[in-house]
Task: inverse folding
């Protein structure tokens, strides 16, 4: 299996993991989420795979809007490429919600798990950097590494920039690794009270017990189609994808 097949196949597995876990819906922001995974030695967004159209919430469950493909993400892709300059093994990332309440839960979680977490105030981003998307993402990556004393963190919270969407980024070696982290976080006690799923309309808190039960996927679920592509996806021609729905920088 070549690198492209391995990356796309891993993303297929990651989507399957997400779509089985209702609790992850509590972590998906209004702008939706994505999982990106770079080819080894990637230097452009076209060498980073992600889910086309991102991942949203349908009937209370995470649901991929499209298939995995190279060039399907912009901001996450550029972040990964920047971070790979420090640690080439950290080739995957997933963006989830940010809030003060979630930040506290993540801090405790990372301490227990021995993970490295950083918090970045985007209001400190230099004005000249804000004017360029490439520079802005490079600045964010540099801040992550600097606050981690020369390492790439496992979790990075980012907030405070004018016109910037607050976001939490989970970083790892593979797409399935960061998704496992997201699933783990989604099952922390009180996460459902801090972060309701984007389709939730009731004022009553949703308990983790009610949202972590694994449901059987219906035959028309998108993941069924993704599984069928696992061994043949590299044979399909790549499409240019509008990645403008990435989180605002």
Result:
């Amino acid at each position: 299996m070549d690198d492209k097949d391995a990356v796309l196949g891993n993303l297929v597995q990651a989507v399957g993991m997400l779509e089985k876990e209702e609790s992850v819906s509590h972590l998906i922001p209004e702008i939706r989420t994505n999982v990106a995974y770079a080819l080894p030695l990637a230097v452009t967004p076209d060498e980073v795979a992600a889910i086309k159209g991102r991942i949203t919430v349908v009937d209370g469950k995470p649901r991929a809007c499209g298939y995995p493909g190279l060039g399907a993400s912009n901001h996450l892709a550029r972040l990964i490429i920047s971070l790979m300059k420090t640690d080439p093994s950290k080739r995957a990332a997933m963006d989830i919600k940010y809030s003060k309440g979630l930040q506290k839960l993540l801090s405790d979680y990372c301490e227990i798990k021995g993970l490295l977490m950083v918090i970045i105030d985007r209001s400190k981003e230099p004005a000249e950097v804000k004017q360029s998307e490439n520079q802005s993402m490079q600045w964010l990556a540099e801040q992550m590494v600097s606050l981690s004393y020369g390492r790439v963190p496992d979790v990075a919270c980012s907030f405070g920039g004018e016109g910037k969407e607050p976001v939490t980024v989970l970083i790892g070696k593979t797409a399935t690794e960061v998704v496992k982290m997201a699933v783990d976080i989604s099952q922390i006690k009180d996460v459902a009270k801090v972060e309701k799923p984007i389709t939730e309309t009731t004022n009553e808190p949703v308990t983790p017990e009610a949202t972590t039960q694994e449901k059987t996927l219906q035959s028309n679920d998108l993941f069924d189609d993704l599984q069928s592509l696992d061994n043949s996806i590299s044979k399909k021609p790549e499409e240019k994808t509008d990645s403008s729905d990435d989180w605002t920088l």
